[in-house]
Amino acid sequence: MWVAITPYELTKTTIAQYVEIAPVIDCLIVRTDQATQATEIQRLLDAGFPKAKITAHSNIKLFENFDLKRIHFKEMDERAFEFKNKYPDACVSMSTHHKDTIQSAKNHHLDFVLFGHLFETGSKPGLPPRTPSEISDALQVDMPTIALGGINENTLSQVPHGFSGIAAISFFLQHDIQTLRTLKEGEHYV
User: Which of 13, 27, 39, 128 is the most buried (most CB within 10 A)?
Assistant: First the structure.
């Protein structure tokens, strides 16, 4: 599974990029400001991005108003667990940083988790990546777990075996669809 995550603001250029690469990604987490998230989702839809791949970020009202099928929550946001109970057919995911959080997500029947960060990343300056032990522990939980943090064309081959996919921000904005297809075909971690 390849999960693209938007930057906090979408431009015409980033929207055009997401529309172009839509066939190679499985979902797009719209991580814009809560106040503008509805506008950004509408802009994506108007540009032709597939509605089935749009994932609201922590905004239940937008999930309902746009009749979306996917929603993502921050780590240990209890609303995720209640939400999955209320909407069992929805695809509900959560960011995680610890094995215990992954286990909790599994216990509440979430569909997958993002786990990170695996590599140095500009999104978390000065914060060290997860240790090999933390990564190994995370992968012990029988739950689809997506690698996050510092994923790029150089680190992609270093993603440990056992992850169910990758999630990234800049990686998906920096490559055209053909490059991404080629990189995806070479996945080794699953």
Answer: 27
